[in-house]
Fold this sequence. Notes:
The complex is a heterodimer of chains A (499) and B (327).
Chain A: E1 7-16, E2 19-29, E3 33-38, H1 45-53, E4 60-65, E5 68-70, H2 75-80, E6 83-86, H3 98-102, H4 116-130, H5 145-158, E7 163-167, H6 175-190, E8 194-198, H7 202-208, E9 211-216, E10 219-225, H8 231-238, E11 258-267, E12 271-279, E13 283-287, H9 294-302, E14 309-314, E15 317-318, H10 324-329, E16 332-335, H11 339-343, H12 350-354, H13 371-384, H14 401-413, E17 419-423, H15 431-446, E18 450-454, H16 458-464, E19 467-472, E20 475-481, H17 487-495
Chain B: H1 3-8, H2 10-24, H3 26-41, H4 48-73, H5 81-97, H6 103-127, H7 132-151, E1 156-157, H8 161-168, E2 170-171, E3 174-175, H9 176-194, H10 196-213, H11 218-244, E4 246-247, H12 255-265, H13 277-296, H14 301-323
Antiparallel strand pairs in B: 1-4, 2-3
Helix pairs in contact in B: 2-3, 3-13, 4-9, 4-11, 4-12, 4-13, 5-6, 5-7, 5-11, 6-7, 6-11, 8-11, 9-10, 10-11, 12-13, 13-14
Amino acid sequence: MSENCSVEMRHINKNFGGVHALKDVTVQFYPGEIHSIVGENGAGKSTLIKILSGAYMRDSGEILINGKKVDPKSTFDMKKQGIGVIYQEFALAQDCTVAENIFIHRLSEKGGLVKWKKLNLKTKNLISEVGFDIDPTEVVGNLSVAYQQIVEITKAFSEDINVLILDEPTAVLSPYETQMLFEILKNLKAKGATIIYISHRLEDVIALSDRITVFRDGEKKSNFRRGEIDGDGLVGEMIGRNPDTYYPRRENIEIKEEVLRVENLRRGNVVKDISFSVHSGEVLGIAGLLGSGKTESVRLVFGADKRDGGEIYVENKKVKIRNPHDAMRYGINYLSESRKDDGVLLDLEIRENITLSDLRSVSRRLGVLDRKKEVKAVTKKVNDFMIKCGSIHHPVSSLSGGNQQKVSIAKTLYINNKVVILDEPTRGVDVGAKVEIYNIINEMVAGGLAVIFVSSEIEEIVGMCDIVIVIGQGRVMGELKAEEIEKSNIIGLSAGVKS
Amino acid sequence: MSTNTNMAGGSRNNSKKVISWLLKNNTYLVFIGMITVCCILSSNFYTMQNITNLLKQNTIIGVITMGMLLVILTGDIDLSVGSICGAANVIVSVIATRQKMPIESAVFMALALGVAMGAANGFFIVFKKLPAFIVTLAMMTVGRGFAYIWSKGAPISVTAEGIKAISTGYFLWLPILVWFLIIVFLVIFFLLRFTSYGRIIKAIGSNAEAVRLAGLRVNTYRFSVYMIAGFLCALAGVLGCARTGVGSPLFGEGFELDAIAMVVIGGANLNGGKGDAVKTLVGIFIIGMISNIMNLINVSAYLQQVIKGLIVLAAIYLQGSNNKKTA
């Protein structure tokens, strides 16, 4: 079983703080095969790949390349071993030509002078080996996303990579471009390369792969060869724990009038046609894969981005929302998806963060801050939200991820809102804090708040929401109510598999 | 950790704390160091006469620097401060002498000019989203050009009464001129430490996008900062005219670099979000002391430039470890 494999990972363990991301994982990859890894978010796929590429260090276990043990300290080490990764965000210099990008490490031979004609010819040949025809003097930024991906792949191959890892390569591709990619991969496979493919698009995975490995909760659950499993079966394998009492229940909450309705929201190529509504006392879940457009859609509701089309109604009255300031005036608030980017101000104190949206509440006349009032208000919030900190005067950067997230939530819920959009509210939060956050949400809902809960963690959606809409490629793929809300339905709608 | 280490290192811990505080707030360390060096180098340094001179020499650049502090706190930059100062310096003298208007009107118009130039900066940078470096660089050239045009290339003498009083009068043992710096400092200090405006300015420099998503009108704040800077530069220009009795198109040349150096030595981060008025004031005088002591011990003006630059470099190097996170 272990002979002939190009890459073998044995008993790999990886811990991040309190999270056991990979538990004793053993997996083999063979040359001339496309081997896909599937699993939900947090299952461990990305972590495994990052360890294999040298980006992360494993805690224990062995990595063998062609039977020989290796101990990489960096991605450079692994590149020397012939392992390359193509991530979703390409590593290309947008203003340079194709040839410059591919040969960026070795533009000149001797003496520092570049022989352009030779270089361009070499590049053209390489690309045709991959099966395509791209002008080597074309500026990469002018190429479509799909062609840029081809340049990335060519680059990897020109550097003697024979194990190519692709992480969600089709998230940004059209169906036609996806087919193009598959042709290339089959081509490379025929040349003996080992292809490791990670994706949520199960239909694609089944069509493409010679082998499929399913990960769940940091463990390798099962392994299948081509033809041994179908879409529904895979979904079944990926579904793990019972969607149980891990999620606190909401009892007897009256769902009242409609608070927010959006119709035909549109923005560029990412949000094509989104409509939904939410009522007071209700939690509307929005599910969808990475790149589906769910975050972009809700940002339009909040005015964080300018929409190209569509209407927004608050309490049945049409409203004009051009920026977050407008949205908040109408009682709409938004918890940012990425706290580090725009959710919290890391250098500022916890106290300064929480009151940011409504400094008037802690000020006297002329904008002079009332420190005592602020300390009192913030201390109350810190207690309500169970934020564990040394003092409210410490910078947010000093807190753990989970507590930083709680600060972000406290900041959003500091003012009274009618409807709050929570985008990935428990991202990067440990299990204990997650439950606390769910309780906070339930309390708010009991008080009449309408919540829009955007998440890529399906169990969360199932456990917390009254109604769920699934977004895919910028459109609403389907709506689920009450008993219909369960994992396989959501996965099915997201992946385009009919269940 | 065992209790043993605590007991043994009791007093050591305390001095460790002080040392680490000093290193983190190394502006004060440098300041103390500078004073020590200056006192050693010249016995004339610590005289009433010299201290007063030191204060007067740095009032004008100090007022500009306080405005620059606000701009840098929001994460922006303003290279036109010297030119706005020069333009105001010229316009106040031109209006007072050639137009023969009362000095009060001349001052008012000079201040209005400063606000207008600041607003122009703000308009292009904040609303048209052009890079601050380039816009203020352009404004720097334009402003200087206007100064030459209005003054017809030559300095203008101003003899109005009110002006003279500022440069020679005293109030509570300090020249009236210096009081302007004190008041500006107190206002900025209060603004930053105790008002929501100050809080928001720092927040914008720390993460403008987060502030926007918190529902605040980031553009309005950034624009207002450029106007305030423009006003303070114009004020500095007027004070310059008061101090020298002359309006000159050359006035303020090079001030922008000094202002930036002073703000940075005062611990501010050029990316924004970090900095405070007290340390900036200290920074103003650290740089001010360099020229002052060099003059006292007769160092050539050219060598002064070199040494000033080296000291700024050294001070920034000391801050390097503190700023690693935000760099």
